[in-house]
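Researcher: Re-running this chain for the archive, since the previous output was lost when a drive failed. Same request as before.
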Amino acid sequence: MPTSSERPRWSRPPRVPSHLIPKPDVYGVLDAGNAVTVLRAPQGYGKSAHVSEWLERTGHPAVWMTARRTEVADDFWGSLLELLVHAGVAPRAGSGITAEGGTEAAPAPVSPAAAVRDALARWTTPFVLVVDHVEKVRTARVDADLARMVRASPAVRLVLCSHLSSDPEHLARLGMDTAFVEGQSLALTPREIARLAVSLDAVLADGVVQGLHDDLWGWPGLVRGLLTASIGTGEVPRAGWETLGPLFGNRSIDGSPGSLFVVATTVVDELTVDLARSLTGNESAEAILETLEASGLARSRPGPQGRVWTYMPLLRSLSTSGWPKISSLVTDAHRQASRVLADDPARALHHAVAAQDWDRVVEVVDSGWVRLVTDAPTALGEALEQLPAERFRAMPRLLMVRDVLLGSRNDTITALAVPWPEPHEDLDESALRDVVGVAVGQIIADRRAQRFEAAAETATRMVDALRDDQGRYRPGTDDVLPFLLLHAGIAQLAAGRLDAATDDLLACTWAGTGGDLELVARTAIETVALIDAVRGSNQRAHEHLAVGATLAEAPEHLALTMDLAAPAARAFLAIDTLDLDAAERHLADLPAQGTIEHQRHAAWYLVDLARAMVCALRGDTDGALTTLENAMVSAGHRLVVPSLAHTVLTSTLARVLACSGNPTRATNLTVEHPGLRGDAALRSRLVLDAGDAVGAVEICTTALWREAPSPRERVTVLLVDMEARDVLGDADGARSALRRAVQTSGPELLHPYALTDRALLERVAAQVPEAAEVMERLRAAAIPARVAQRVPVVELSEREVAVLHELATGAPVDLVAQQLFVSVNTVKSQLRSLYRKLGVTSRGAALAEGARLGFLGQDRAGDA
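Model: Regenerated structure tokens:
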């Protein structure tokens, strides 16, 4: 043996492979100087390579041992002792010489483990002992004994390279001060994969690099093998089981019991031991999962019910590759998973659909649709979209769930014949649920097909049929009643029946509060708040929004028809207090104009209405007109005439035109759209602008005494009445009208005042003490004051309008005469009259003015 002055004969580490991507963080752990450092990762993660690179870089002397497979601990200790003897760390048996020189009496025979312990304890020159593949010593925990020996040595550091799984027991066995390097630290990042590809002359696109990383967890050996195999082929490397299976050696899928276990469990995203046993019936599930983790095909983490395993994405691709029987096996696995996961409807449904087990799909949906609607609406929608039509015929109640999520289908109305119950008829719970399911489907289908009256009639009929003789809702409808009442209320709203809509939506709030469908109740009460805000019942709107804030909120992924309601209601409330900055903030939370899905959002037009109101209050008349006209144009076929949406948008457009000095265009709109004739505020405004103050007062009086207008309409009509009476010299009547308006509006409904002639309002309010607070708030809001513009209404005869339309075609005068069956002189006479009334002198000017005033029926009104 050498003396202490001679350099020991250290065993050489293995060669560092080419194209190794260095891992500074791993080297940092090795540099930290811990007595015991463990690199534990599957084969091919580069454990040995990084340790060898580190030793070569630092120059640390080392003894490197590659363990051989054995079941006997003494075999390991004997091999290590032989290596230590060769390195000069341990004395040769029977030599009488101690390590590092000296002599001693011949020792008594000791075990190999004791000899290793004694040699390490006596050694004083620092070196690193590396034991690679320590997991090959199967039945004996030699790593813990070796760690204790090293800690007792003044000079030796231990580095273990192992495939053992990263479980807490490993840490406890080796000591709490052991430093660990896990497989995730050795895995390649996407950037490192790109670097490796470049060094191998296999340049890849970013998407391919990311795919390799995700599919293989950045497994260095597999990535390198795949890249190397693709060099010179001209093909993009792809992580598939057929390509990479051979790289796994004995881990390939071959039909063995272990392989069957993998197939049966890869259908589940996350595995516990209990779930794996339930899916496979294999009592060795834990051992198999640990083996898969040691092989790199799975990872585990602590969970509330024990360890949770996740399979490598590549392994999950088994369903599309490799094994002839795999398709039927995967189908069976999904079917079993759906049964095992019965307590989790979303996961059970996913597996039932994957197995195309439609009986099971129906069973899961029927028993757990409430949780599915709230927790997994996308999965539920996809399942019902694939469900064959005959299944709905067998269980019509599923139509409600499907149509709420997906929209109507033809079979909603035509293919299903479910008898309607009479108000006094007794139905069992199953039949009643079927009837409700079909009714909701029909309501949704009619509304989305723009059949608003039909939807409202169906809603009224179904809601009445659900009540018994005492007016109470029939038992057995708890989980369907909120949805029915919500969509009944929406249907009534779309049809313009605001009182009926409010009744149904308030009933929905009552039925859904405190249950699993409380989120539906919140949608309903927020929709009531929106109706209140649009009508000017602002105190009630605030109260209903406050109630909604206490109810369960719908998850972000579940939009229930009127999820625009709350921010839109708040925008209207802010508009009424003339806080336009707040209104714009609320509107910014809503989709941009033209992007709202009108089939899902029944009140889409109210958002555009609020935006136009803000523009008008800021003095941006062009912006208000453009917003309203764009809403009507972009609406296309969804803006059915007549409908509440069409009436609201057209009426508001006419009011803005009238207030901005274009009463002619506003009047033409009322002619084009007879539904506007019921708008007393608009009609009285136009009559007043035409100079008929007496007619305006008559319209206002009739509206106030014979109808029950909303607060907003009542205040607006009273303010027109005030203006008309002032024109007639009826000062007492004007003051009375303003006083009644203030009593209706209070200080929170200021919007109608901001659109009234400010000078007149100030003059009359000076004699009405009750108006003081309203006027003070109006002044403080700094809204541009409206000045009355008495622009005369242009009236054209029917023949003059016809001539104007012919001019728009570009036809000469003689052809115009021919088209209208009159003489050329007659057309010329009508042209002179037309030009005079429009105040123009040319054809082009006549066409422009005619379009601005609405005689050409164009969508855009032009500059006011």
